[in-house]
Design goal:
This protein is mainly alpha-helical and about 170 residues long. The protein starts with 16 loop residues before the first helix and ends with a strand. Strands 1-2 form a two-stranded antiparallel sheet. The chain is elongated. The chain contains seven helices and two strands, in the order ααααβαααβ.
Length: about 170
């Protein structure tokens, strides 16, 4: 039995990747990720520095056998701050008019919806959390490696969020 073609909606136009722009492949996306990781590591160093300063200023010793509430509270705040900063960096940058993080901008990439429109903050947020929480669940990094083997160069989080990474002109 032959399968039926996918449904079409009268208010939506079928999109071909070449109409939007050529897709960004796996390796250029990987280099953009490394650039963004470097940028985020600078923020992490600042936050960890603040954490160490708080520990030193309250004169708490990490060597004590008791768990100090100041140390535990500082670690929780530090981890939450790192998570929020990483999320906001990606979501705000990819939902901006440029549609890309600094690493992607440096390499001439941008993220768009499958129909070529700019990402909303909500879709950029969903894409971020899919990328950091769902895609890593697939063994052997296959969710990320999909970007090297699919026709539209989409990783698992791109498929789930219905986004494309394209080369901007």
């Amino acid at each position: 039995m032959a399968s039926a073609p996918p449904p079409t909606w009268p208010d939506r136009q079928q999109v071909i990747v070449t109409d939007i722009g050529p897709p960004g492949g796996f390796w250029i996306r990987f280099v953009a990720y490394l650039l963004d990781a470097f940028i985020m590591s600078i923020a992490a160093v600042v936050i960890v520095g603040i954490f160490i300063a708080v520990i030193l200023l309250v004169d708490e010793s990490i060597d004590d056998s008791k768990d100090s509430p100041v140390i535990i509270g500082s670690v929780i705040v530090m981890v939450l701050a790192l998570l929020v900063i990483n999320w906001l960096y990606e979501a705000l940058m990819t939902s901006s008019p440029r549609g890309a993080t600094l690493g992607k901008q440096a390499l001439g990439l941008r993220i768009v919806r499958a129909d070529g429109a700019r990402l909303s903050f909500g879709r950029a947020t969903a894409r971020h959390f899919l990328k950091v929480m769902i895609t890593p669940l697939v063994p052997f990094a296959i969710g990320y490696l999909m970007a090297g083997f699919t026709a539209r160069k989409r990783a698992l989080h791109d498929v789930l969020a219905d986004t494309l990474v394209i080369r901007s002109s």
